[in-house]
Design goal:
Blueprint lengths: L3 H25 L1 H10 L4 H20 L3 H20 L4 H20 L34
Length: 144
């Protein structure tokens, strides 16, 4: 069995659902979220920013709408979560965040796949998504 597109869809659905759930949770208890971020030395702005990125980014990944861009911003959120919250506790305490970081980067590098709402616009050969790696080429001798 070789179904990479189905595998990518499953990763997108799982990652999207997790981030949507966590984003909604942050908004439902925004005062608690603000307090948690204050304990890290961060302002309320960052609590709202992270909640929004998780919710909107999760929806984008789930639906495959500019999934590369969403994967990058979600990976950045996870990187900061690992550094600011989990770094002193060891790998075991951060394995969930590391898995979400790796999954987000996988989506960022692979794109949404053919099972997405923007498969004709935002897949391989992406022209509209803010983050596209398909147009990057190495210069040839004639271009240098």
């Amino acid at each position: 069995m070789h179904c990479p597109e189905t595998g990518l869809l499953l990763v997108r659905l799982a990652v999207g659902a997790i981030f949507i759930t966590h984003g909604i949770g942050k908004f439902r208890d925004i005062e608690g979220t603000i307090g948690f971020f204050a304990g890290l030395g961060l302002s309320a702005f960052f609590a709202y920013l992270v909640a929004t990125v998780e919710l909107v980014g999760g929806i984008m990944v789930l639906l495959g709408i500019c999934a590369r861009f969403a994967g990058v911003i979600l990976a950045i959120v996870m990187l900061f979560a690992i550094i600011l919250v989990k770094s002193g506790a060891g790998f075991g305490a951060a394995e969930f965040e590391v898995l979400l970081l790796a999954s987000s980067l996988t989506i960022a590098f692979m794109g949404p796949g053919k099972y997405s709402l923007m498969r004709h616009v935002c897949g391989c050969g992406c022209k509209t998504c803010p983050v596209s790696y398909t147009h990057l080429t190495l210069p040839t001798n004639r271009e240098v």
